[in-house]
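User: tokens in, sequence out, please.
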């Protein structure tokens, strides 16, 4: 004789747990980007131009205690005139599910500086690429050590 206390039998509960465990076993895992995927994303952004070191400054904490909110600032040394200005800044992270974090476009006025927060899933390099109006590109990178991941890590 089968008894239930809340209208649900032990067999139903165990069957549900088994189905849930099976679903978890075959569920797709989030793949993290790697250096190759990041290099490919940057190559696509650059369109064949080779990025040089210099002009771009990226400010990040060396250690991020929480990867959910990592502040960053990217600035580019540029006069921001009609003759010479920053057209775009792209920020990529090597260890996130998608390497591209953010993109910003500019006009030849003001300053080429951006600040915001991003999520980082693990310790990784963060790279900033600036595309200039004269067709050149500049890049900077910095490693951030993440103690608690923000992208499911």
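Assistant: Sequence out:
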């Amino acid at each position: 004789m089968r008894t239930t206390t809340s209208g649900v039998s032990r067999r139903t509960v165990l069957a549900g747990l088994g189905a849930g465990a099976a679903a978890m076993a075959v569920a797709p895992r989030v793949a993290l980007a790697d250096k190759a995927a990041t290099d490919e994303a940057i190559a696509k952004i650059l369109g064949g131009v080779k990025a040089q070191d210099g002009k771009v400054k990226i400010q990040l904490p060396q250690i991020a205690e929480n990867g959910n909110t990592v502040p960053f600032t990217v600035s580019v040394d540029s006069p921001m005139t009609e003759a010479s200005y920053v057209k775009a800044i792209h920020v990529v992270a090597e260890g996130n599910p998608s390497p591209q974090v953010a993109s910003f476009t500019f006009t030849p006025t003001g300053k080429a500086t951006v600040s915001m927060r991003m999520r980082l899933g693990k310790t990784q390099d963060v790279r900033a690429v600036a595309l200039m109006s004269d067709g050149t590109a500049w890049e900077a990178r910095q490693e951030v050590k993440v103690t608690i991941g923000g992208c499911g890590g």
